[in-house]
Amino acid sequence: MAPDALTDVRPRLRSAEEYRESLRDGRRVFYRGEAVADVTTHEVFRHAVEHASLDYRMAHDERYRELAVGPDGYSRYFTVPRTSDDLLARSALIEAATRAGKTLVVLIKEIGSDALFSLLALKSRLGEPYAGRIQRFYEHCRDGDLAVCVAQTDFKGDRGKGPSQQPNPDAYVRVVEERADGIVVRGAKVHTSVSVNANEMIVLPTRAMGPDDRDYAVAFALPLDTPGLKLVASPYLATKGKSAFEHPLSAERKMVETATLFDDVFVPSERVFMAGQHEHAGELARGFVEFHRFTAISYKLPLVDALVGAALLASRVNGLDRAGHVRDKLSWLISYAETLRALTHHAAERCTVVDGVAIPDTLLVNIAKLQFAQGLHTAFQHVQDIAGGLLVTYPAPEDLDHPEYGAALRRYLEAAGGASGDERLRVMNLISDLTAGEYGGYQAVLAVHAEGSIEAEKLTILAQYERERAIEYARWLAGIEEGEWPPSD
Amino acid sequence: MAPDALTDVRPRLRSAEEYRESLRDGRRVFYRGEAVADVTTHEVFRHAVEHASLDYRMAHDERYRELAVGPDGYSRYFTVPRTSDDLLARSALIEAATRAGKTLVVLIKEIGSDALFSLLALKSRLGEPYAGRIQRFYEHCRDGDLAVCVAQTDFKGDRGKGPSQQPNPDAYVRVVEERADGIVVRGAKVHTSVSVNANEMIVLPTRAMGPDDRDYAVAFALPLDTPGLKLVASPYLATKGKSAFEHPLSAERKMVETATLFDDVFVPSERVFMAGQHEHAGELARGFVEFHRFTAISYKLPLVDALVGAALLASRVNGLDRAGHVRDKLSWLISYAETLRALTHHAAERCTVVDGVAIPDTLLVNIAKLQFAQGLHTAFQHVQDIAGGLLVTYPAPEDLDHPEYGAALRRYLEAAGGASGDERLRVMNLISDLTAGEYGGYQAVLAVHAEGSIEAEKLTILAQYERERAIEYARWLAGIEEGEWPPSD
Amino acid sequence: MAPDALTDVRPRLRSAEEYRESLRDGRRVFYRGEAVADVTTHEVFRHAVEHASLDYRMAHDERYRELAVGPDGYSRYFTVPRTSDDLLARSALIEAATRAGKTLVVLIKEIGSDALFSLLALKSRLGEPYAGRIQRFYEHCRDGDLAVCVAQTDFKGDRGKGPSQQPNPDAYVRVVEERADGIVVRGAKVHTSVSVNANEMIVLPTRAMGPDDRDYAVAFALPLDTPGLKLVASPYLATKGKSAFEHPLSAERKMVETATLFDDVFVPSERVFMAGQHEHAGELARGFVEFHRFTAISYKLPLVDALVGAALLASRVNGLDRAGHVRDKLSWLISYAETLRALTHHAAERCTVVDGVAIPDTLLVNIAKLQFAQGLHTAFQHVQDIAGGLLVTYPAPEDLDHPEYGAALRRYLEAAGGASGDERLRVMNLISDLTAGEYGGYQAVLAVHAEGSIEAEKLTILAQYERERAIEYARWLAGIEEGEWPPSD
Amino acid sequence: MAPDALTDVRPRLRSAEEYRESLRDGRRVFYRGEAVADVTTHEVFRHAVEHASLDYRMAHDERYRELAVGPDGYSRYFTVPRTSDDLLARSALIEAATRAGKTLVVLIKEIGSDALFSLLALKSRLGEPYAGRIQRFYEHCRDGDLAVCVAQTDFKGDRGKGPSQQPNPDAYVRVVEERADGIVVRGAKVHTSVSVNANEMIVLPTRAMGPDDRDYAVAFALPLDTPGLKLVASPYLATKGKSAFEHPLSAERKMVETATLFDDVFVPSERVFMAGQHEHAGELARGFVEFHRFTAISYKLPLVDALVGAALLASRVNGLDRAGHVRDKLSWLISYAETLRALTHHAAERCTVVDGVAIPDTLLVNIAKLQFAQGLHTAFQHVQDIAGGLLVTYPAPEDLDHPEYGAALRRYLEAAGGASGDERLRVMNLISDLTAGEYGGYQAVLAVHAEGSIEAEKLTILAQYERERAIEYARWLAGIEEGEWPPSD
User: Are D13 and D60 in contact (CB under 8 A)?
Assistant: First the structure.
């Protein structure tokens, strides 16, 4: 197995500068109602571009090269996982990038490869001409070392109704015209991450569909400068005007989400991966989500590590290391973080190989994601508890340098732990940024909703569990089935 | 009961304009290292002044007059509670003001009167000349309808040591000189709320003290323009540049906390309420905190109501009213809010009258505060869960009006509940402001730390509970004590 | 109002002996498949009879008389509540009886009067002849000071279907024949408490019904010796062979539940309170449950007090008073217990008077019940945690007295708290009985299921909350409704 | 490495009958104050013997042989783990035995080998003559295929004081005489599991000790019939008189705990493994506990599986599969069980090899144990919730066969799930036994206390976590450390 290995061109690993340059095209991006001429220089988006370029810089960084470059010489993000070890390496790469990215996932290759893998895994069932197109598009992304985003979630309208039953026929993206050379699509997607600074956008269905939803069972890819494609960016969590002292995580880092509008966009046939195969829509939707949830639990690890580290650091600079309740909360935070790590790694180790693609254990991935999601708000509470009220009453950095009272203020801010006032304030600001401002809110809402909601994870857990095995044991315990365990048959 | 009632001057109820005018004095306020010339016109503080003036406007508003004005014609905030009904009325006033203040407590009279009541309750134990000064200062505030802030929390330094054992002798505010006509104090307080826009500041000790801490056992009051007093305001949660569409709660409302520096400030004797009576320091500290926690649980009610209301509204505009998990979370939120309300009201009903002052049941107040504090993060989680990812990916208001895609976007934002796109977005923005941005973070941190931390509340609960009664019952149940219940003695 | 007051016979307060004697009739009770000739002497049921007689003894006990006897001279259990104070007195009586009953509710009058009140409240809607029969039956119970049980829960069969759609037509109790002088009923009820030692059984419908369920919309009363009525008692938690040293709560106390079979039982017209009025079935079912939940939260108070007291006592005899984690768990337990108490009392204070009957606040009653039910298992965990492993490894009382090693064992069992080995063991046994054996299991299952399940309570909370008021506030906060709060209309 | 492999005698695998026979010796066992002549025929202990014999039967059972017999032909319980795979195999064996043992751990070899491994791991530090004795005793147990119990927990007395400071000098087991040929010990241990039916007892210290505690730093082994050794068995959870229909788990299965008294017991030198090396006492105590916690989390798996299976089965026989809240609780239970399984397996995979002995990851073992312990009570609550009130009101099996009403009762007990009344009742009885009676209480208390308490696990978690690594990351995030991540050094 490996068309990868057969290619004789030297694998390309773009530089951060090449990546940045590639974003200067005719894409139509709007911010607060205004068209953005160049995302690489825009006051907010440039931070998103800079953050995303981390995925490129790592491949050229000696410290990360082994992790960031696959055995075939391409970016490891595009390495199709075949074994547990491949999954562990992918997870480690995603974790390392997010760690270097100060707890904000980079995503610019992560999410796109998740979608590519789910498409590849569906090739044999979709058959030709789709299988070939998928393979070629995958190679196009890999060979070009492209930044790839994914638009999946539709606006949906009435949640009690399917795509074809909506009052607004465009509530889900659909095919409005089939031409000899391609299709025309209309509609909109919401929550599209990193679209303003990607090279390609993969569009996937968001749910299972029935025969009436045929027009909505559509998957395809587009370069970002495709006519008719409009990206309306959310103003949430703008970097604008923030100082790194006060917002050490979010002042200079950014991920952008857009409402993504398809105004009768033409997609050439070669880029259409599904059009009408409603019976595979759910499978594709779920397949992507499952790969993406494994990405998610991998990139949450630096965040939970940061919470533990920040709490430990705060307990130290506040002189509270010995307090019983602080130790109790610290042990909770450690258990939370390390359970997530263990579940993530174990999900890779217990993978299933389907058509040559290693899929992390779905049950464990969802349990990991659920436990992360259900615990984050409590984790914030504990970290805030250890940190103290200064989180929202801290003085400004300008105050520390004030000739009249700056020195006194610094001295008052010193505490038992031997940290200077400046250091203590930095710890407070880290925790404030991490848990009590827009960045913390962003992480909290992502925890609950990104890569599928808490309720979706519960349903998956219930569906994936081997229920009959457990019931059989209970029946034996209850004496309904007689004889010894295990039942001989 | 009432020296109050004997005064023959007509009670004064200042207008909002008079209040605002009173703030234009020589007070030294700093914001991001710069001196603020006039807090009433400063781009951030003017919102704090405007918010605070609500306490004045209500007294002149027919709809609130009965609640806002006491039976003696003064502001009800200054009505010393004598009965359960007084406490219930005070609680209702605080709740109403916060409700009209869009879930942000007004505090400008609430906190000051809490301190005044705790001083009044200590009069007989402090004796003269302190008792008389306290009474006169109380009347001064009441008669002048003044805005009064309280500075209590010291920076503390090493938490394992008492005030007099700190490496930094100024870690707690202390008397550095005793003069014939007053005292000179030095040190600093942190987390001082509403100080930039108050008329008077009451300074209280923050903890119990021993004989060595004599210099630190000090309580007094100062007008805000006292020489040597410096207020360094926190930059957290600035209103600057926010739109009310996106931040319906926090764009135009603000409470300011300061680091409060006492650079050898002279306090005339008449304004000194404690100086050296270390044996009463803990009592005064706790007395204020207990009154203030009752204020706190009263002003948390609009916040928890807003969470319930926002969740109900979100479930409706998202078309999720019928979903089982949504109903489960809604019932949790309702139980959370109404338990807090019941405990608050019941604490007033079960008050204890000490020296003529009605004190809400300490055990119940602390249980209420603790349950609020421990549940808020989970409440945020549930509300965010019901609301959806739009909380952090919403388009800007400018986008809704864009000629090219605004109308389409509005239509996509419509959902099953019959709400327009504009309305749905407003609901999302409310919840984003309430739970996922700086305002939500502010409320979350206040929940854990303001008016005493979670751990302080636990200790109070343990201390206040009638342990021996419970142990006696357990001993009887265990058969250690014989006979029938109740034991006859 | 008061036919009560007009009666010129002297109110009757039966003695415990009279009560016991009244149970020797032709009732058909089965225990483990065997007919029980006399419940007052049966090795298990006699403990149930003895426990139930507490309700009678209290009325003749000087210490309880004021609480146990109503202002009209009848047992207070039969006093129809007209005011908050009536509800508080009723709650206090139920609490006192359960406290004297060592945390096991007595129930023999409590549950019957709950049913009577719900029938009385429905009189005007049911009209004659039902109204008169209800009134007369109420007076019959009150005047005779009778022990009254209630059979409500049907076996149900398929929970997705209503009564008339069940494969087994007898899955819900129904009328199989209407005669001139009465009706004949068939079917069975489950979970019928205290039936083996009651004088009267009131039978109520268990849910709302539709027109097709007419035959199932039936309510009536029967003396326990009615032909065709069979009581099959559960063997769970038998007192048999238990020593009071090891099981201080459950060795000599018992409440009995039965499966209650109606084998074509004739009910004379005078005792039929509903027959076919399906439109009132749900109302009657809910009405009883709501009264009964108030009874429930009242009788849970001694249980939660016992948990707090036992935990305090265990921490003392184990020498753990000072341990931080123990104090944390104790404060949790106290908050749990006192929140339940506050909600219970506040529900009485906020009652609604309907047709002259005071109904405790339904929202608060259900919140109280839910919080109790959701917390009990955690409370058990905390108490077990403080108590230690001896809960399940304790030696027998016979060991303490063994000539060879008894004295040594007693000494080893002593701990820091100054308690003797015997005392420490008694504390362990109390907690073992309370949380870790059948009695604890009984209380745990009752917490979740008795008087309606956790889920039923959640639904009631959602239904009872004033949703529109909360939504209106959220709409104003969101800026959807303009102007000041409160909206003028 | 491997004296094991060099031995030329054929490894012995005793039969269950040989095991049973070996228990008929002069051991002094007391039950309720009476000496037990033969534990294999005693009405309670025979169930313990029968249950324990499972460990022997499995080695002769084809279905289990591969798991139960190590590669060297001895019982796998005695296979010293060298690799992750050894640990996984050991864990699988313990899980399988407990599963076949109906959720009750067998323990008769498990706990003893945990102690042997911890002694073997300490050999090099203890030096001779201890190292040789340990090795020989290990071989003695392995070669003889012996049942080995462990006595560790002392009665302790005042928990605030060390062994040598206790008012009662025997509160911890100690050496009272050193002879040329051995030592004489005095004192007592509590919570000693399976001692009545073991062949050997290993005695270990329970905590770290100081120089003054020299006499208490003692470890040794004894055959159970050693003079002066007395076993006082707990009466908790007696099998006596229980039917398997009503108590499918606990009617015929039993683990016995004893208070274990050492009345000046002589221990020959060859069996003394530590005497006075106080500096190693804590290490040995912890070493055993850590091995034993891994055993614990392995043997908890069938219990949590049983909870999931029972809940699934109950939801089916109650016809509640589709109910939203039931599915929510089921997904919680599955996550609980599978997180425990993943952590257990991952702890084996991440083992550390010390002196050739593979030690499961301590951090993960403790997190697993803690999460199990903290969740079990909630798990019980959810299972009880799904099962219903019948858990404590079920009729007796004799009732189902009653000629008069048995058939009717069976029919009423049928529910939607297609299960017969008999089956449904068996499911209820399983859950009642599992969660609501003495067996459930036993499991609940063991969860909190066995193999170390919840608080001990928290402390271990905090101690084992790589704190400095986390703090370093937080410092970099906060901007205290500059440069890129990871820091180059």
Answer: yes
Distance from CA of D75 to the nearest CA of A (A): 20
Query: Touching check for C118 and chain D: CB below 8 Å?
Result: no
CB A266, CB A298: distance < 8 Å: no
* Helix H or strand E encompassing C233: strand C229-233
* Residue A7: per-residue pLDDT: 47
For residue A21, the tally of other CB atoms under 10 A from its CB is 12
Q: Is D413's Cβ below 8 Å from some Cβ in C?
A: yes
Query: What are the CA-CA distances from residue D392 to residues B11, C370, D377, D428 (Å)?
Result: 67, 20, 17, 9
For residue B130, is pLDDT > 90?
yes
Handedness of CA B273, B276, B279, B284 (dihedral sign): positive
Interface touch C32/D398, C-beta < 8 Å: yes
Determine contact, residues A348/A87, Cβ cutoff 8 Å: yes
Residue of B54, B313, B255 lying closest to C481 (CA atoms): B313
User: For position B160, what pLDDT does the model report?
Assistant: 82
Subunits next to A (3 or more Cβ pairs <8 Å) are B, C, D
Nearest-angstrom CA–CA distance, A485 and A476: 8
DSSP H helices in A74-161: 84-100, 110-126, 130-144
ω before B129 within 30° of 0 (cis)? yes
Strand segments (E) across C337-476: 352-354, 357-359
What value does the CA radius of gyration of chain B take, rounded to a whole number of Å?
A: 24
**Strand locations in D154-209 (E):** 174-179, 182-193, 200-203
3-class secondary-structure state, position D346: helix
Query: Edge-to-edge, what's the strand order for the sheet holding B200-203?
Result: B148-151, B200-203, B218-223, B272-275
Does the beta-carbon distance from A248 to D479 stay under 8 Å? yes
Of B345, B346, B473, the CB nearest to C305: B473
Nearest Cα residue to B21 out of B58, B55, B49: B49
What the block records as the tokens of C443 is 């209380």
- The rounded distance, in Å, linking the Cα atoms of D316 and D322 is 9
CA distance A178 to chain B (A): 23
Alpha carbon distance A299, A451 (integer Å): 12
* D357-359 and D352-354 strand pairing: antiparallel
Report ipTM (2 d.p.). Answer: 0.96
Amino acid letter at A311? A
Pairing of strands B229-233, B28-31: parallel
Stated length of chain C: 489
Query: What one-character DSSP code corresponds to residue C185?
Result: E
Residue A333 sits at the vertex; the CA angle it makes with A328 and A338, to the nearest 5 degrees, is: 125
Chain C residues within an 8 Å CB radius of A325: 324, 328
How many Å apart are CA D39 and CA D29, to the nearest integer? 8
Residues in contact with B309: Cβ distance below 8 Å, sequence separation at least 6, in sequence order: C470, C471, C472, C473, C474, C475, C477
Site of tokens 């002297």: C10
DSSP string, A367-401: HHHHHHHHHHHHHHHHHHHHH-THHHHPPPHHHHT
For residue range A166-215, list pLDDT tens digits in order: 999 999 999 999 999 999 999 999 999 999 999 999 999 999 999 999 99
Q: What is the pTM for the complete model shown?
A: 0.96
Average pLDDT, integer, range B12-37: 96
Distance, CA of D359 to CA of A191 (rounded, Å): 46
Neighbours of B158 (CB within 10 A): 17
Mean pLDDT across A373-383:
98
Q: Which two tokens stand for residue A462?
A: 């219930």
pLDDT at residue number B246: 95
Q: Which of B122, B112, B121, B278 is nearest to B210 (CA)?
A: B278
**How many angstroms away from the CA of A471 is the closest CA of chain D?**
4
Coil, strand or helix at A146: coil
pLDDT digits (tens, 9 = 90+) for C244-294: 999 999 999 999 999 999 999 999 999 999 999 999 999 999 999 999 999
